[in-house]
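Known limitations

Files may contain more than one protein. Parsers should not assume a single record per file. Below, a two-record file is shown to illustrate correct handling: read the sequence, read the token line, then continue until end of file.
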Amino acid sequence: MGIIVRQSIKSTVVNYVGTFIGFLTTVIVATRWLTDEEIGLTRVLFEAATLLACLAQVGITSSAIRFFPRFKNQGELHNGFFFYLMIIPLIGSLVVVPLYFLCKELIAGYFQARSSLFVEYIDWLVPLMLFLVYLGVFEVYANLLMRIVIPRFIREVVIRVLIVTVYLLYGFRLIGLTGFVAGYVLTYGVAMALNFWYLSRITSISLRHDYSSVSLPVRKDFFKYTAFLMIGIVGNGIASRLDLFMVSGMLGLASGGIYTIAFFMAAIIELPSRSITAISTPIAAEALQAGDFVRANALYKKVALHQLIAGGFIFLLLWANIDNAYHLIPNGDDFRAGKWVVFYIGFSRLIILFLGFGYSLLSFSRYYRWALYLTLFVFGVTMLSNYLLIPRFGITGAAMATLCAVIITYAAQQWLVLAKIKGNPYTRESLVFLLLLVGLFGLNSLLPVAESPWADGIYRTAILGVTGGGALYFFHLSEEIDRLMQRILHYFFIKRD
């Protein structure tokens, strides 16, 4: 248990450091040295390659977690498990790459009119896909061996530092656009190689295996589970990237770049959920396997409340300072068209924070097949809403489409969770906090705007933070937060004495 706690704490620290570096990379450096079209190019390349990588991995990064206990032994080779981690994505890649070239003209045709720059560099998708495939494979194997910190450090910190370096090399005209794209892609190759090197240091890397040790029932179970899982992963992967693809295809890479910056700003709302979900997910899985719906539902309520509180305050402070943010980031006027994208995406992320744990409960229960049907439903709603709203409202329409899709699909998901496993996140505390949050948004609208964006941001954040924190403590919405605030107050009280 000690190693799990230590690794979790270190991983959380790395997540926060990585997010800060990512903020500097995307919001400060990229907006200073790249055009909105070039930002759109890097994002579309990455998201498209990630989608291809999901196909090529054939669900192995998820199914490995389920099947590793059947291979695990006291030796370092774990009955040749590493061989299967390597060979299955290789087979998947050998299928996906030819399919990509078959569909290349169709993909290029969709982007040609308004995103010709992406078409010019479209073949870089293949090496980037391969790097992402095995980057994910090596990460998951390290995680299975209870070594999550270094792979997380490589993904969250090393990759972002290397990308900043590529941005600066391009910004100072030391490399051209082709060199910029090549450097961006090779960054993930370096990360993949570092993960492989780390694995070689903590375990024996060998392709030796005993095929007879994999029984026929295990093979059948693996193929059945993986096939089912892969459909869900691919469907969810497409649905989560449709807005960017459709914005870039219908409006152009420049719009995709503006959308990317706004989306990244809103994405910080989800940051607290990473640690909360990582800690809570194994407990939920254990409770549901034991058929303890009461324990699982109690956990659902607690996770939903704390993620709502954390995400709600971040959303409040983000939106309160949105104009200040666009004043302060380099070339902010070029990206200001994404202001309302931040609001709608932020609102959708708040709903996901509150209801998202229900999807985990559904996936871990015996009703896990419903998760697939839900994914397909999400895909359909997302595509339809983007198709209807982007032509009319531009990039804001894409964000509105995301919000509409989230409201509809998460309402359907919550109905399933309630009907199947009696899961219900709603409490008096969550309702009180929502009312408090609405009041704080109202207070923000009444505050006068200071001339300096720095001064405005500081005083606005201070007033909303103190008022919100005081109200949270006064209403006693969370025992855990109450104890934390009491420690803080006690600390400063002792310091004053």
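...continuing to the second record:
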Amino acid sequence: MTVYLYFSLIPEALIASNLPPEKFGQYYATGSGYKSKGQCIFFEVDPNFRNDYFDIKTAIERCVPAADGTPKHSVYISVYRVLEHLPVSALGKLYLSTSYGHTLGLNRGEMPKERDPFLHLYQDLAPVNSLVVSNLEPAMFFDSVTSNPTKFIRFPALCFVELELDELAKDPENGQANDLPYPYIHHLREALMVLKPRTDDKPSTKDSKMVHRVHSLEFPYRMIKKGFYVGNGTDLAFYPMLSHKELRDDHNQWWRSANI
């Protein structure tokens, strides 16, 4: 039976499984009777990927169906320092599973080229789960905490998603929060007000500020702005999120379960 490799972000883990992506997403989100359900995010990994840090060979040998033919759901290969040992070139599609097990696959796309001179909200997914506001574009934000850190904080690799700020991106003090579902709006405003939108002629003295050091990895999928970013070293890849219209028209079941 085929053995798949998956890089999970909730929690960070490298996993071998006999289940194809959609079935793995359903299993991983809803689990067995003893596990409470919750959304999950994972990448499919090139099955030929190998790194001496991981004992992938042994995991594959153990990833065999049961005597009755039931596929092996999961064999955990590693739950520590996974991303930093995974080159971006080994990552395939990104999958988003709702807490009801519906799974959506996203393809890698071209990095956004347009300049967004407003403030940003980033949810770090791995190797940390901090919530950060910044006036840096995604690529610049990634660079500021990896290759060219602007502070003492530095990561060898990082996966993060940008979330919507609505009017707060332009005017954090007076802008309307509208339908932003964040329970920490007041604290978010205060953090954003410390920053100033970045311009070429007026560089900011402060680029980023922590909102929450340790934040829940679950967030409303409808709040995703543009998409997901994953990088290792100097390599950064972008996985664009589908528009709300595309999700409603072409992936209605996933969209509905994501918004229950």
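Parsers that stop after the first record will miss the second one. For reference, the second record is described as follows. The mean pLDDT is 92.
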